[in-house]
């Protein structure tokens, strides 16, 4: 049974990935132009294949589970199990074990292959085929960061260990701009020391007449003592889903500390952890639904099993998309939202009597 499930899973996964890639290529073929575009397109779709395989693996498992139950029913094996009073857990054990192993493989596959393949595929589309999409949203050239003691940093792209250009604002209580430093470049000059190149220092004082006074000083090199470290100011660009687990956690911490938007990063972290777990209740739900549709004299056709698996996958996909949108909007905690598809699968399995462990009864 386990070997048959594995065979059905890999055949289904290969089929759906191939269909997706063929349709995607047919839809975008007119945009692939230029010198040696064939090699670039081949690399693009090799990376896309890794990403799509990761995304569609739960769908393939759901369809494979439905096909397995249908094949057992068509061969009369389920009828024999009904007569013997076999409990669901006896049949679910190999399916749950396969789903658990698949979840672990998916997590490590994402860390080792998928995040890099996703970033590389997007890079090829942008730099080779000029398909930008919302690339600039996640690869902005500058960032605002909240520092310590009322200090705010506006930093340009990272270059050779520093940032070019750079602006530092110092806010005095209750909320007043007291000092501003604009420089061509800021770079670390030792522990707690920062070097500004071609800097313009502007001070805003309260004394000296109505509205205060403004003084400006220009220097080629300005050394300042700030408590922030280079790691505190380093933000990695890119989509949250394109960061490995450790970097994703670190970027979440730094963005929360620096006052940057971090909700999407927390949602990506929660979904990364939840996806390998969701495959287990999803497989159980597919098992229960398919079993419910089996009839002694009218077996569910294989096409019906595939349709059932696709329908269940669409329901769970819709639940995950809606939950992600709600989490990013701030209306729901990301970790709670990430658990919704798995809870929905578990509820479906429970309603079908799979999790209860009750013995099968022959459908009438």
Task: State the main characteristics.
8 strands; 364 residues; alpha+beta; elongated; disordered C terminus; six-stranded antiparallel beta sheet
Widest sheet: strand ordering? 1-2-5-6-7-8
Inertia-based shape: elongated
List the total number of helices.
11
Low-confidence stretches: 356-364
Q: Radius of gyration, rounded?
A: 28 Å
Q: Termini distance?
A: 26 Å
List the secondary-structure elements in sequence, H or E.
HHHHHEEEEEEEEHHHHHH
Biggest beta sheet summary = 6 strands, antiparallel
Question: What do these coordinates show?
Answer:
- The protein has 364 residues and is an alpha+beta fold.
- It has helices at 2-28, 37-74, 77-84, 88-127, 135-138, 230-233, 245-258, 263-292, 302-329, 334-338, 340-351; strands spanning 143-146, 151-155, 158-159, 162-163, 166-172, 176-188, 193-205, 213-225.
- A six-stranded antiparallel beta sheet has the order 1-2-5-6-7-8. A two-stranded antiparallel ribbon has the order 3-4.
- It contains eleven helices and eight strands.
- Helix content is 58%, strand content 16%.
- Strand 7 and strand 8 form a beta hairpin.
- It is elongated, with a radius of gyration of 28 Å.
SSE layout:
Layout lengths: L1 H27 L8 H38 L2 H8 L3 H40 L7 H4 L4 E4 L4 E5 L2 E2 L2 E2 L2 E7 L3 E13 L4 E13 L7 E13 L4 H4 L11 H14 L4 H30 L9 H28 L4 H5 L1 H12 L13
Antiparallel strand pairs: 1-2, 2-5, 3-4, 5-6, 6-7, 7-8
Concise description?
This protein is of the alpha+beta class and 364 residues long. The protein has helices at residues 2-28, 37-74, 77-84, 88-127, 135-138, 230-233, 245-258, 263-292, 302-329, 334-338, 340-351; strands spanning 143-146, 151-155, 158-159, 162-163, 166-172, 176-188, 193-205, 213-225.
């Amino acid at each position: 049974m386990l070997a048959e499930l594995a065979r059905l899973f890999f055949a289904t996964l290969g089929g759906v990935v191939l269909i997706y890639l063929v349709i995607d290529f047919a839809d975008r073929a007119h945009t692939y132009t230029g010198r040696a575009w064939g090699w670039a397109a081949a690399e693009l779709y090799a990376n896309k294949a890794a990403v799509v395989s990761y995304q569609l693996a739960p769908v393939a498992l759901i369809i494979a589970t439905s096909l397995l139950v249908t094949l057992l029913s068509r061969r009369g094996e389920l009828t024999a199990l009904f007569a013997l009073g076999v409990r669901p857990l006896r049949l679910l054990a190999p399916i749950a074990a396969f789903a658990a192993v698949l979840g672990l493989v998916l997590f490590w596959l994402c860390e080792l292959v998928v995040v890099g393949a996703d970033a590389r595929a997007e890079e090829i589309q942008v730099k080779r085929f000029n398909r930008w999409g919302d690339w600039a949203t996640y690869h902005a050239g500058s960032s605002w960061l909240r520092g310590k003691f009322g200090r705010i940093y506006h930093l340009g792209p990272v270059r050779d260990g520093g940032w070019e250009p750079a602006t530092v604002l110092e806010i005095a209580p209750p909320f007043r701009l007291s000092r501003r430093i604009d420089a061509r470049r800021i770079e670390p000059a030792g522990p707690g020391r920062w070097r500004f190149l071609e800097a313009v220092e502007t001070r805003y004082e309260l004394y000296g007449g109505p509205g205060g006074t403004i003084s400006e000083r220009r220097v080629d090199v300005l050394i300042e003592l700030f408590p922030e470290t280079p790691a505190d100011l380093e933000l990695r660009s890119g989509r949250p889903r394109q960061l490995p687990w450790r970097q994703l956690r670190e970027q979440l911490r730094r963005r929360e500390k620096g006052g940057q938007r971090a909700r999407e990063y927390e949602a990506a972290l929660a979904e990364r952890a939840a996806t390998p777990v969701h495959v287990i209740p999803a497989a159980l739900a597919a098992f229960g639904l398919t079993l419910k549709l089996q009839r002694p004299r009218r077996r569910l056709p294989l096409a019906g099993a595939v349709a059932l698996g696709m329908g269940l996958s669409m329901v769970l996909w819709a639940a995950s998309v809606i939950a992600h949108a709600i989490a990013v909007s701030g209306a729901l905690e990301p970790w709670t939202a990430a658990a919704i598809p798995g809870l929905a699968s578990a509820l479906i399995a429970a309603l079908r009597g799979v999790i209860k462990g009750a013995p099968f009864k022959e459908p009438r």
